[in-house]
Amino acid sequence: MGSRILPERQIAPEELDRYLALGYRVAGQAVYTSEYIKLGKREMVSVLPTRLPLTGTSMGRHLRKCKRRNDKRFKAIIGPARLDMREEHFLNMAYFNEKPDKAVEDLSFHILGRRIVTPLIRTWQTRVYDGEHLVATSYFDLGLDSAYSKQGIYDPEYHKHSLGMYTLLLEIDFCRWAGKKWFYPGYVGVETDIFDYKLRLSNSMSYFDFRLQKWLPISNKADLPKPLEEMRSALHKLCAILKERGVECGVKKYNYGDIRYSLRSSADKFVDGPYVLDIGGVKKPTVVTYELTGTHPFGLLELEHRYSGREHPNFLGSADTYMHIARINQRLHYSDNAEAMAAFVLQFLGR
Question: Of the candidates 244, 345, 261, 349, which has an alpha carbon nearest to the alpha carbon of residue 298?
């Protein structure tokens, strides 16, 4: 599983609890999970969902001090997310100009998603004011016993006040007051430090291990699993075996997995995963993918090249990139190890 994307539909609070507990998260009004994301246009990083228990834990002294200081300086309002976004629009423009890789162009995405006119999930909002001026806001989704923090933005001129962290602390305090048990602050990146601020919330944080399908404590970030590295290494191992036996092949980056997000109605028909092993010497395009979960992680797929990667809004072509947006024509075989998959590929090629 590189990612799973559920169709946009009504999600009851207790159902959201179940999805969050399985490592899913929310984007707009859709629930999904993924082992990796694209940062900007070129960099892919492994990501792991994080979770904080809301009972029996406390924030560190520095964060408590930050919250007390900001409580005195600013006025905070928490309530259901509002669709009248005149104030938020100007705030988001300033934030987007400063941090385009972390921002969305239209904040209504958090409340309405892509294709709907009424919310499907209970999305709430914090608003932080300096006098009458909106200086920060954040959006979070409420389940029955849990909450998921989607995004916080702030006026870059107020950077020294740590308002992104402050809105997280406001959400946590509200969720405790509301009797929630779990708070999900989003994911942490394994190969990047830009999400590490979430780890400052508490030493009681845990992460979801996709392979083991369970939550484990975060003791040292350096010890966290690296999904991208594991997927890439597994495919390179298979590639080496096949090349020794005379098969033309190569491991390629697959940059178009996000096409499945914009085409959720038929998402299962498109290739998932950040890498593919491209097999040469075949009449129809054929690749091997690798998933971290399941008993048969190697999958041999016959593809349709319906679209060129150049049709993707963020086309990233290079020598090590698979150049097509690939639709799955048929799933040919699954294997639990590289040697077994190599044997089948050789048989498939008539070797």
Answer: 345
Compute the distance between CA of residue 114 and CA of residue 124 in angstroms, rounded to an integer.
18
Q: What angle do CA 199, 203, 204 make, to 5 degrees?
A: 105
Q: Which tokens belong to 339?
A: 């040697």
Q: Indicate the pairing of strand 146-154 with strand 182-184.
A: parallel
> Would you tell me how many other CB atoms lie within 10 Å of the CB of residue 75?
12
pTM surpassing 0.85?
Answer: yes
Residue-wise pLDDT for 225-246, tens only, equals: 999 999 999 999 999 999 999 9
Cα 285 versus chain centre, distance: 29
Residue type, 336: D
pLDDT of residue 116: 65
Please provide residue 244's backbone torsions phi and psi, each rounded to the nearest 5 degrees.
-60, -25
Strands across the sheet with 275-279, in order?
Answer: 249-253, 275-279, 286-290, 298-308, 324-335
Token pair, residue 98, equals 């400063």
Alpha-carbon gap, residue 228 to 2, rounded angstroms = 9
